[in-house]
Amino acid sequence: MADAGAARIKALIETPSTTLGRAANRLGAGLRAATSDEEAASPATIAALERMRDFYSGLSRQIEEIETRTTVPQDEALAALTRLDAGLGNFLQALHETNGETAEKELRNAKRRIARGGADLARAGERIR
């Protein structure tokens, strides 16, 4: 059975966030609205991506402050959140990039890191019992 700190980490990981959901919806809407000849994403699209990064940064701070009997759940969650942040950073860089090849590289890195970070975060929550 998980100690109170680990249980709190699990709750933070698994509780849906309306803030994150709204930011993801705004990001998606901004990307769908962009035309292929645009060099940069709209300010609203960038703001939505930055809001997602802020959310994950805040979640990391909350998890860092939790005391647990063992640091494994905390370490796994923080590593996953670091990957998510790195992926979102790659995504942001790609949106600012004017060189097509460099933008594609950043998007590939973003996709890989976000997918792995998301899966790792879900797995970290599942491992806490």
Structure description:
This protein has 5 helices and no strands. Helix 3 packs antiparallel against helix 4. It is elongated and about 50 Å long. With 129 residues, it is mostly helical.
Summarize the structure.
The protein has a single domain, classed as Four Helix Bundle (Hemerythrin (Met), subunit A), CATH 1.20.120.
Label this structure with key terms.
Four Helix Bundle (Hemerythrin (Met), subunit A); 129 residues; mainly alpha; elongated
Rg of Cα set:
16 Å
SSE class: mainly alpha
Number of strands: 0
Distance between the termini: 5 Å
Main β sheet profile:
none
- SSE string: HHHHH
Number of helices: 5
- The general outline is elongated
List the helices and strands and how they pair.
Blueprint: H1 4-14, H2 18-33, H3 43-64, H4 72-96, H5 100-127
